[in-house]
Design brief:
- The structure holds 2 protein chains of 2 kinds.
- Chain A is mainly β.
- Chain A is built from no helices and 11 strands.
- In chain A, strands 2, 4, 5, 6, 9, 10 and 11 form a 7-stranded mixed β-sheet that branches.
- Chain B is built from no helices and 10 strands.
- Chain B has a 6-stranded mixed β-sheet with strand order 2-10-9-4-5-6, with no helix packed on it. In chain B, strands 1-3-8-7 form a 4-stranded antiparallel β-sheet, with no helix packed on it.
- The chains are: A mainly beta, B mainly beta.
């Protein structure tokens, strides 16, 4: 069974940093691109970042550029999102999602349960 | 960047009704369009990709159509378990923009 399990969420002060992790199982991790999608309280889905299967290509939403870094460890089947300079508006549930292809510009066919990040003083 | 819009933003229909949701892209995206269903308090779930291909396990009452800039998601006979917010997403290129969502309720 394909599974994605996020961790690393929590309460952080504005300007702080946090690293999210997503442990993948049930599929050949390196064969698929992965994405982070977030959802602020009561709001819609917002794509944050994607990374190709090899990790050689990364893409970011304008809201994440310069503050977030996506990476992956294909030897451990783990996806990461390193976030710095956190703002109150970064408060959201962060979902890890598997894309349906190796290139990082595809639809998402499997989603994790999400991890909640609250940015507040 | 290409913008995605959806209409209506919400709707209320009776069980058994035919429901149609529209998604529009500000520029042509061929058929690189996916639809997701998010039930209250749950994780998003892929319904349709390539504008009209039903994901495995999705009930056949869901269907999608369209190409270019205009797309539709149709529920042929609305069921109580279809109460959810539905999002379209373009994936012809990054950014992988989602539409704002359409909330579907039972009348």
């Amino acid at each position: 069974e394909v599974q994605l399990l996020e961790s690393g969420g929590g309460l952080v002060q504005p300007g702080g940093s946090l690293r999210l992790s997503c442990a993948a199982s049930g599929f050949t991790f390196s064969n698929y691109a992965m994405s982070w999608v977030r959802q602020a309280p009561g709001k819609g889905l917002e794509w944050v970042s994607s990374i190709s299967g090899t990790g050689g290509s990364t893409y970011y939403a304008d809201s994440a550029k310069g503050r977030f870094t996506i990476s992956r460890d294909n030897s451990k089947n783990i996806l990461y999102l390193q976030r710095s300079g956190l703002r109150v508006e970064d408060t959201a549930v962060y979902y890890c999602a598997k894309e349906a292809a190796a290139a990082a510009d595809y639809y998402m066919d499997v989603w994790g349960k999400g991890t909640t990040v609250i940015v507040s003083s | 960047d290409i913008q995605m819009t959806q209409s209506p933003s919400s709707l209320s229909a009776s069980v058994g009704d035919r429901v149609t949701i529209t998604c529009r892209a500000s520029q042509g995206i061929s058929n690189y369009l996916a639809w997701y269903q998010q039930k209250p308090g749950k994780v998003p779930n892929l319904l349709i990709y390539a504008a009209s291909t039903l994901q495995s396990g999705v009930p056949s009452r869901f269907s999608g159509s369209g190409s270019g800039t205009d797309f539709t998601l149709t529920i042929s006979s609305l069921q109580p378990e279809d109460v959810a917010t539905y999002y379209c997403q373009k994936y012809n290129s990054v950014p992988l923009t989602f539409g704002p969502g359409t909330k579907v309720e039972i009348k």
